[in-house]
Amino acid sequence: KLFFTDYGNAAKVERCDMDGMNRTWIVDSKIEQPTALALDLINKYVYWLDIYLESVEVVDYQGRRRQTITKGRQIRHLCGLAVFENYLYTINSDNLSILRINRYNGTDVQALARLDNAKEIRVYQKRTQAAVRSHACEADPYGMPGGCSHVCLLSSSYKARTCRCRTGFILGSDGKSCK
C-alpha cells in the first residue's frame, strides 16, 4: 500500500495500491493541513502532523481508532515524522532540533540534538525492514521485473502486479510490453 496526505480542496489522509488503484480516504474529517506522515508497519497505524490544527494524530490502516497523541503551538514548527518502537521522531524547524515524542504519552517530549538544516527524518534499523517474500515484480528469466518491459508496480497484493510504461510509450495489448 501507498499512504499519503493531501491538503488541497479537501484535506485528507489516503491510501491506495502501489499501482494507484483502490484509492481510499482513511481520514477526511477534523483535518486541515496534514504535512508529514509515518507508518507503524507492525501494528498497522498511520501517524500524521497537522500544522494548522497543531496536532499529531493516529489511526489504523482503515481509518478507525483515531487518537490525538499531542496538541499545541509547538506542532506548528514541526516537519518530517518517523516512528520507531515507542517514539515518534520529528524536526522542529524553528530551532532545528530533533524531537522524540512518546507515542503513548504525548506529554513526554525530549529534544535529542540540533542540526544545521533539516526538513525530514527517517529511522533506519534492521527491525523496521520487512522481510521480503517472493512477489509479482520479481525479475523473470529474462531479467524483466514481473515480465514488464519498463515498470512493474505491485497491485492489490504481493502476488498481483500492473505493468506501466515510461513517458512516451504505450502499453501493448499483452499488458507487459511497451511500444
TrEMBL record:
Q: Which GO terms describe its cellular component?
A: plasma membrane
Q: Name one GO molecular function term.
A: Wnt-protein binding
Instruction: Return the PROSITE patterns for the record.
Output: LDLRB (PS51120)
Q: Name one GO biological process term.
A: canonical Wnt signaling pathway
Q: Which Gene3D superfamilies match?
A: TolB, C-terminal domain
Coiled coil location: none
For this protein, the record's InterPro entries field holds:
6-blade_b-propeller_TolB-like, Cueball_EGF_LRP_Nidogen, LDLR_classB_rpt
Positions annotated as LDL-receptor class B repeat: 1-43
Superkingdom field: Eukaryota
Q: What is this protein called?
A: LRP1B protein
Encoded by which gene?
Lrp1b_1
